[in-house]
Amino acid sequence: MMLRGFLLLAALLLPVAPAFAADGNTRTDGIDLTLLLAPPPAAGSPAALGDLQAVLAAQAARTPTEDEAAKADAVRSVFRFTDVLGPGLVPATLPRTTAFFERVEQLDKASVKLAKSWWKHPRPSEVSDKVHPLSVEKPGDWSYPSGHATFGYTTAILLANMLPEKRAAIFDRAALYAHHRVVMGMHFPSDVEAGRIAGTVIAAQLLQDPRWHADFVAARDELRKSLALKPAGDE
């Protein structure tokens, strides 16, 4: 409970500074996760060895069905959650929802890029040639924290606040989405756990930031209407 309280307090204290792109549209700079996350396990440490064994165990247990599910979850999109939200949800009919979560993805990417560049933690296949990943990342895209896990948990928390009726299913889906990064052989469990913490911090910040409120409400109302749920109370 103390850790959770600290993370939420830290999130509220960390600014999300607005800036302007070349076209004049506002964008949002990243949150400095290096101030909040512990360092990744040191090379050769018991924790690092345990991380590697977990990746190898997931690799050994992979089935063709799980392989395909993990590959599908390589896409960073709120629409990966449609299997637990409801049928018929597509970007074309949810423009405000799509735009909101694309903005979330941009913030997540900026925040995670900063942290990855700080720690420069190698991916599992760089640590051991026994790891056979299901995809290949571009050079210099480090492992810690997991950007996919960060996005999955940021998205889950925001969705759960838009659709509290589906909270349990949303968080279960986020956990699977994040775990698929280990199945893919792209991340260690410690990367995924750091992504869970990072996503929690980022989502807590966004839920309190007035610059995000109008877009959050617009996406929430559009999504609830599409799912035939009663309107949320005015805020």
What does this structure look like?
The structure is a single chain. The protein has helices spanning 2-13, 46-61, 64-72, 82-85, 95-119, 124-127, 147-162, 167-183, 189-208, 210-226; strands spanning 18-20, 26-28. The protein is mostly helical and 235 residues long. The protein has a domain at 63-226: Vanadium-containing Chloroperoxidase, domain 1, CATH 1.20.144. It has a two-stranded antiparallel ribbon. Helix 3 crosses helix 8 (167-183), helix 5 packs antiparallel against helix 7 and helix 7 (147-162) runs antiparallel to helix 8.
The average pLDDT score comes to: 89
Number of helices: 10
Rg over C-alpha atoms, rounded to the nearest angstrom:
18 Å
Largest sheet report: 2 strands, antiparallel
Which band does the percent of strand residues land in? under 5%
**Structural class label:** mainly alpha
Number of strands: 2
Q: In the CATH hierarchy, what is the architecture of the domain at 63-226 at level 2?
A: Up-down Bundle
Q: What's the CATH class of the domain at 63-226, please?
A: Mainly Alpha
Side by side, the strands of the main sheet go 1-2
Helix content: 55-70%
Name given to the CATH homologous superfamily of the domain at 63-226: Phosphatidic acid phosphatase type 2/haloperoxidase
CATH topology of the domain at 63-226: Vanadium-containing Chloroperoxidase, domain 1
